[in-house]
């Protein structure tokens, strides 16, 4: 890999890490790692106002980390970017594994 490609990849990685660096967004992604969830289901795990919660979902959507689909009155979210899954699995192993119980 040449230096130009490394810089480009570093920029992409930095953007991804910035998007997941907020505690609320990280929690949303951890929940979505388990299964697709509706906005209402996700919001149950948050102490944020509806407005703030929606803003965090918007950041994740705009960065291409999550995708949504509408079914009837519900909007379902799931993880879109496979690199997010790999990062979350690593973080889960470090911070939520059996040795951290």
Secondary-structure topology with pairs:
Layout: H1 3-20, H2 23-34, E1 37-38, H3 39-43, H4 50-62, E2 66-71, E3 74-79, H5 82-95
Would you kindly provide a written description of the structure presented here, covering whatever features stand out?
- This protein is of the alpha+beta class and 101 residues long.
- The protein has a single domain, classed as Winged helix-like DNA-binding domain superfamily/Winged helix DNA-binding domain (Arc Repressor Mutant, subunit A), CATH 1.10.10.
- The chain is built from 5 helices and 3 strands.
- The protein has a 3-stranded antiparallel sheet with strand order 1-3-2.
- Helix 2 crosses helix 5.
- The longest helix has 18 residues.
- The chain starts with a helix and ends in a 6-residue tail after the last helix.
- This is Helix-turn-helix transcriptional regulator.
- It holds the Pfam family HTH_5.
- It comes from Francisella philomiragia.
Summarize the structure.
The chain has 101 residues and is of the alpha+beta class. It has one domain: Orthogonal Bundle (Arc Repressor Mutant, subunit A), CATH 1.10.10. Helices cover 61% and strands 14% of the residues.
CATH class: Mainly Alpha
What is the CATH homology-level superfamily? Winged helix-like DNA-binding domain superfamily/Winged helix DNA-binding domain
Helix segment count? 5
Q: Please estimate the helix content.
A: 55-70%
Structural class: alpha+beta
Strands of the widest sheet, in order across it, are 1-3-2
At CATH level 3, the topology is: Arc Repressor Mutant, subunit A
Average pLDDT over all residues: 92
Radius of gyration: 15 Å
Question: In CATH terms, what is the architecture?
Answer: Orthogonal Bundle
Strand content: 5-15%
Spell out the helices and strands N to C: HHEHHEEH
Main sheet characteristics: 3 strands, antiparallel
Distance between the termini: 40 Å
Q: What is the total tally of β strands?
A: 3
